[in-house]
Amino acid sequence: xxxxxxxxxxxxxxxxxxxxxxxLLTTTxxxxxxxxxxxxxxxxxxxxxxxxxxxxxLWLALLFASSLMLQPCFLREQNNDTLSALRLSVSDPFAIxxxxxxxxxxxxxxxxxxxxxxxxxxxxxxxxxxxxWLLLVFFLASLGISIAGxxxxxxxxxxxxxxxxxxxxxxxxxTPILVVSAEVTRSLLDREPFVRWKGIGFIGVFxxxxxxxxxxxxxxxxxx
Amino acid sequence: MTPPAFSPVGLRLxxxxxxxxxxxALRGVSLTIAAGECVVFAGRNGSGxxxxxxxxxxxxxxxxxxxxFSGSGAPGGGESNAIRPGFVxxxxxxxxxxxxxxxxxxxxxxxxxxxxxxxxxxxxxxVGLSERRGSLVRTFSRGxxxxxxxxxxxxxxxxxxxxxEPATGLDPQGVTxxxxxxxxxxxxxxxxxxxxxxxxxxxxxxxxAIRLDAGSIAADTRTGATFRSILTFADA
Lengths: 224, 236
What we know:
The structure holds two protein chains of two kinds.
Chain A: H1 2-21, H2 23-43, H3 47-70, H4 72-75, H5 82-89, H6 94-122, H7 131-156, H8 162-173, H9 175-188, H10 197-221
Helix pairs in contact in A: 1-6, 2-3, 2-6, 3-6, 3-7, 3-8, 3-9, 6-7, 7-8, 7-9, 7-10, 9-10
Chain B: E1 10-20, E2 23-33, E3 38-42, H1 49-57, E4 64-70, E5 79-80, E6 86-88, H2 100-110, H3 116-126, H4 142-154, E7 160-164, H5 172-187, E8 191-195, E9 208-213, E10 216-221, H6 224-232
Parallel strand pairs in B: 3-8, 3-9, 6-7, 7-8
Antiparallel strand pairs in B: 1-2, 1-4, 4-5, 9-10
Helix pairs in contact in B: 2-3
């Protein structure tokens, strides 16, 4: 019960501070937007080409943006040593991770939802008929990115090369999510859309495995 | 300050070592602090004061040795390490993007304090922040931030209070307010451990002074002349 209560209090704090500063959301949305626009200028895709590679571009943009977004996740807890205050206050340190990864997932999903219509127009791909499936993929993949990213953000925040370390650790680790999410999205944007259940299952398993690892070992990531 | 709702707690450190890589920050520190003592830790930068306080706060695990709290306030009335001291660090440990009230309510809820709104109200009044309760902490002066930090540390009525260089960055008025606040906390029976640099209004509140040197205890006294020499790094 206290885990849920602590997580909910901390999630409230994460959302309140972000919606007050809007730092992460603005940066993430602008970054994804720039990448999508630059790609569309560089390739000038026809509809058939778009169906082939647009999903890959979308997930690449999301992945790079998430590495930007996840960077300050634990770094900003160091400004006033608030991480120590949290560690002294919560009964289960997993609540700190749960709240942060829930907030990161929400921010990523929000950015994806805001940019999806633009992506559909720029790359001339029909997203409305498969919107519910796309949302499922976005949710599962964003959760996976957030779980791994939150854990690595806690590690990199204590390192010397903290700004460089997170992307170096995160991007290789998330390669399976990138490849599978892009494949599943491509099949959904096909002329005859179909659902790759194996891909969706893989992302789900990725989420469960990393969440379990975080639950088991998260406490050690916060130690000084 | 509000009347205390805690029982006295003392603590014992036995053979504490703390190693960060190759650096031995603390070496074989053994110390018994009675309930209600107000101990001032002095020493040069890097002598191990902060590490020692962070070990007592249980934010840092010692590489070797044990920490035990004892007294009627410890669980079961005996010895325990399940005590949660209040900790005021060099940093404020509160969020700049939240108001003073939001900060205190957040930490009160995390600590599952009964009637958090009432407790926060009382503390805001005690530290003189009632009128600025709705202001973001980032708009506060250093002195006001320190008041918020002390209020956060006192939320759960800790029997043991740790203060790591609490006067850093405060103007003379701020130091006077802080000294008065610590005096009240000491007189309420709390065990207080604080690290300080040199003599000040605050150091005079100490009932015992300990000098750390290169991670070891170099001097430990409760008497006048030696007490002063410990704080000023002079030879006793």
